[in-house]
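Dissemination and training. As part of the outreach component of the grant, students in the summer workshop were shown how a complex can be specified as a set of sequence lines and then modelled as a single object. The example used during the hands-on session is reproduced here so that future cohorts can follow it. Participants entered these lines:
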Amino acid sequence: MLKRSHFQPSLLPYLLVAPQILITLVFFIWPALQALYESFYIQSAFGLGTTFVGLENFVDLWEDPLYIESVWRTFMFSGLVAILAMSLALLFAALADRVIRGAMTYRTLLIWPYAVAPAVAGALWIFMFDPTLGIVSYALDMVGVDWNQAVNGTQAMALVIMAAAWKQIAYNFLFFLAGMQAIPPSVYEAAAIDGASPMRRFWNITLPLLAPTTFFLLVMNVVYAFFDTFGIIDAMTQGGPANATEILVYKVYQDGFVGLDLGSSAAQSVVLMFIVIVLTVVQFKFVEKKVQYS
Amino acid sequence: MMVERRPMSDFLAHAGLIVSVLLIAFPVWVAFVAATHDATRMTQVPLPLWPGDHLWENLKTVFLTGYTGSSAGVPMWLTLTNSMVMALSIATGKIIISLIAAFAVVYFRFPFRMFFFWLIFVTLMLPVEVRILPTYEVVANLGMLNSYAGLSIPLIASATATFMFRQVFLTIPEEMLESARMDGAGPLRFFWDILLPLSRTNIAALFVILFTYGWNQYLWPLLVTTEPNMTTIVMSIRQMLAAAEQSPQWNLIMMTSLLAMLPPLLVVVVMQRLFVKGLTETDK
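and obtained this result:
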């Protein structure tokens, strides 16, 4: 924590931490407390004055079928994004780990979507699936699928899941590949001598040894799907059609900035902060992230 | 990991990888093709899958005049500049304040040291998306709307960078400080002459991650900028998509999307080794 040999107390360390602390207090702690405070009040109809209502905003959320639906939708969305992005990344990593020549070239060609902004990813995917012009919806039309994410909620959800997973594969791939490359070859050689086929070695050696990486990635993917996909949703569907893609983060924004329901938005922020704290604790407590890089 | 020679499965692995690479790249290929055709061709079904010859023309249009379909057509040289200023301020700002904060926490004993440390730690938990409205209010009250300061400073505090530097400093041998002291070096001299050079690669790795993070910001610029000339390129795409509902000019929208992803993409691909290091050492 602290170096055994260190400098004597003076004004200097305070000056050194001051910028970080100041920004933290002004832009993090203060707004968070503000959200907590506002979540116990209701703004009167014309924005004149507020009334203390205790936990009423939270009770309202709990009793609001739209909010509960959004909670379930968010879990489904995050789960599907995580499963899709992780299973494809695992497959790609397994392939890249097999080849001797060109593994690093493949890595370069597979990790770049990490750098694409969520909103840009949304634009690319909405263009391919544009109901009248999109190249993929055209192809789907040829095989008899009527694609229109502006009307069909299930299709809209499928589309945001695909776009979100597309961006996240790169991250998962990098960690899976690193995890696989850290497994000593001797383990595989021993299994091969015992007559284990490559498939069997993958199931019985690679997968179990990747368990810590997998759990770490699961948490990171859920965090990503919960909070970092705002740009994708806003660029593609704005939560529609008929709230079909309105996940919790999008709802906070909708109710707060568009609907101007401050109390409810603040209460939703508090619920989200709680979720973030739980996820962070899970990540710190249970995730042994020791991925070796060579 | 291949143990025995199996030419057939080796071939299949390569084939599988090539298919994966093509699948992943397909959305960008479609965008690139769209950016090389004129507006008329982009309204005829089926859309082309092979590049046309309007690349230069489209580039010139978006770069100098912006998206013509919307009233607020901001030229892209301006949105690119805004994005660059924001990304660079966020990346350098985070690195500087994290470096000095980590230095203080690791190398000084002073009252409230742990309190400060935990205060920084808490920020790790609160992404801007969950405290949108109150943070916006604070920035508005400080008169920082529509400014580079408003775009970057609220995003500068982050625990991850501080944690990473703390980790780096903890691995630096104790003898370093002792011998520096013997030579009569004060804290600032020690920081500048020894700690900074030793953390050079970490700073570079972090820069790659933070530049990408800053460049790709979306919700925050959307909230704190209302003047068209403060638009960043990533948020300008949203405005184009909204305008596209009436009169789609996909050739221009896709050209903008390509340019919006190019700078962070180049940084990540060119500095791949540093990128991987940064990603695995900061968690996020």
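Chain A has one domain: 63-286. Students were then asked to discuss how this feature might be tested experimentally.
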